[in-house]
Predict the structure of Carboxylic ester hydrolase.
Amino acid sequence: MGGVFGLPRAGPVSALEVHTDAGAVGGRRIDDLAAWRGIPYAAPPVGPLRLRAPHPVEPWSGVRRAFHFGSPAAQRGETDEDCLTLNVLATPGTSGARPVMVFIHGGAYSGGTSSSSLYGGQSLVRRGDIVYVSINYRLGSLGYLDFTQFSTPERPFDSNLGLRDQVAALEWVQRNIAEFGGDPDNVTIFGESAGANAVTTLMTTPAAKGLFARAIAESPPVASAYHPDRAARWSREFLEIAGIPLSEAATWLETADPADFVAAGTTLAHRGADEEPGTRAFAPVVDGFFLPTHPLDSFASGSGHPVPLIIGTNRHEGRVFPRFLNILPTDPTRIDKMFSHVDVAVKERAIAAYPGYPGRRAAADLGGDVTFWEPSVLCAQGHTTVAPTYSYRYDFAPRLLRILGLGATHATELYAVFGLTGTWARLLTALGGRRGLRAVTDTVQSHWLHFARHGTPAPGWPRYSPERRETLVIDDTSRVENDPLGERRRAWLGYEHRR
């Protein structure tokens, strides 16, 4: 849902020069804010560095003009692999040490970019006096397929490339953000959808320990991480789709046009949505070393990084997918396949929790819940044993979304998080809800910014506990409920996600 809002017009260029560990970067004024864009945090992953862990940036001399966003990662419509850049936005001046918020964009690990104006961050910076960072990372088959089985002594391949990129970006923040007025000891990572999966996965990744102090996960598909045998099969299927014999895999992987990676990856993702519903080929791999343990298992055992966490989902996550991004188990055929590996009693109990099934809306709600809500509940209840955890449900939906049958669907909370009031926000509320959108924006930003500064949401939002399951229901009038949809939550007990 990004990429639809216009950026503010740039004002006069100002000498916003700072020094990083690779040299100096010169930014510019964006209205009243200081912006640095397209800063490389790792070497371009091209040539011999394709499908390798991120390498350090080569230092440069002089001042690098950081005026323009870096290229998106290779995806449909974009084929530039030189994508490992980030952006910094702050109020001018570097006095004091401000909280830092690092945003990881969503897009099913196959699309998206930090340059989307949806993720601009201006409202958060102005309201909260924070330093805002947004990052690009490798996507799709170039970032989230595991080709390690095709490594040779001359040409090795690494696993978890997108995840490694995110760690490298956070390491850059630790080394450099003080130059931009940020506090490296007060970094909050936050993300939505696949970006929220990145957040929950980073919370269980050893290499990310100490790189952030707090985390916010908006609609995370926490279960989306897979063991090596499944990941290896997907990479073989990818090469089969591309028409490449396995004996020629290493050479092709090193030399193929990135557009060929994107094309074969798109086919693989579409095929998987029908053949293995409930799984996603583009996801982290539990490789035993960089990601030693499945995130759900880490949270269940209380072994995630002990940082405060805000986690939540939207009331009708799944309803947008059948219309605009048909990748979830949101119809009876896919849902039957999804349940084929579990006890029949679990399937019957779960389906019974969705009145009106197999109707379109009930099926979409089921698919959205099993992807986002149910694993988020498991994550939250486990993490309470090691750190303060805060649960929310986003219920706000302006009248237009209700008329369309979408309700508070996937990603709609981003309008409140980023405080957007542009053309699309006006259209969204054309039939009513403008005052409500202002209210939920105030609620969400107040809590997110208070959390980033102090490690707790603003007053009125209690900690989550497995006994009471306190949840902030965010609407034009927000409220706290204990165990909302508790019967539905219990209906999912015993369901095992494919790994």
User: Anything to note?
Assistant: The domain at 17-492 is CATH 3.40.50.1820 (Rossmann fold).
